[in-house]
Amino acid sequence: MYEFDFTITGIGSVPFLDVDETCLLIKENFPNMPFWPQFVKRSPYEDMIIQFSEGIPFLRVSEEKRAVFAIKSTSPEKELTHFYESFFSEDLSDFHISIEYAPGLYKMVELVSDSDAPFIKGQTVGPITFTGSIKDQQGKAIIGDSELMDVCTKGIAMKGLWQVRKLKESGKKTVLFLDEPYLASIGSAFSTISKDRVVESLKEVIDYIKEREDVLVGIHCCANTDWSLIISAGPDIISFDAFGYIEHFLLYKDELLRFLKNGGNIAWGIVPTTDSDFEEADIDKLFKKLRKGLETIGEWGMDLKEVSARSLLTPSCGMGTMKPENARKAISILVEIFNKILK
Questions:
Q1: Which residue range forms the structural domain that includes residue 27?
Q2: How large is the angle between the packed helices 283-299 and 324-342, nearest 10 degrees?
Q3: Does the reported pTM lie above 0.90?
């Protein structure tokens, strides 16, 4: 069991453009668990869907539309045969993440290697958000296509495993988050996938990676969702928007208690990452909100020292849409809240 004691880390995206400067900023402000930054304003290749599309059959990138489309060939057998041969032989050579698609990943591994950081964090789009965001030639999301869903789930699993092994080159304990904003729509009229299939897909990715590497895998959702569903997929960490949804999150008392008692960890996304919310952010109010959430779990009978040991602090979501000056301030607020906890 790992003790985090409110270690601070990030979700992924940033609004900055300079790779070296940003990675140094992260290394300095997140000394125990630096994360690699996704420069969403720097290149379309760093869009969260495009960034993880390399090597997966039938997927084609449109830089102009900043999107990925699924286009099946008239004879897909060759592509599928090669893909499944790679999957079953665990050949990850086609499933790397190019430096052009993620320069922050390569730079952060280099920077962290000579640091005292015990952890390094990475992230990948989760299979539900990935397939829910990609459309086929008829304009339908491929989440409803069983063949493409299977291919993409396995592809994300292989790319996640490749990333974990790349992060391990730093010599640090690796943490990997599956980013799943699409989970907010599960169970609604906008979703065409069953809850059982959601759990099955998430679990397939998590199990594939954890069976092959010593890694902690988390699921991040920055919106309102069914947390019992996410917990049942078996993550080590659940990451949520504590600023916007802490009351809803704490409605899942029984599920959260089981999760925590079984060694689960919580990442509290306490600092807002939309400019409109952030401009109203107040450190004391954010700290009070966090403390109230922790005290609620304490009232359930959990030892607060144990909960604290397995808690992380993060922004509520990625910072990629923020003004750069607000993102920098959000980082300093996160550090201040951490220091306030230490007192």
A1: 7-342
A2: 50
A3: yes
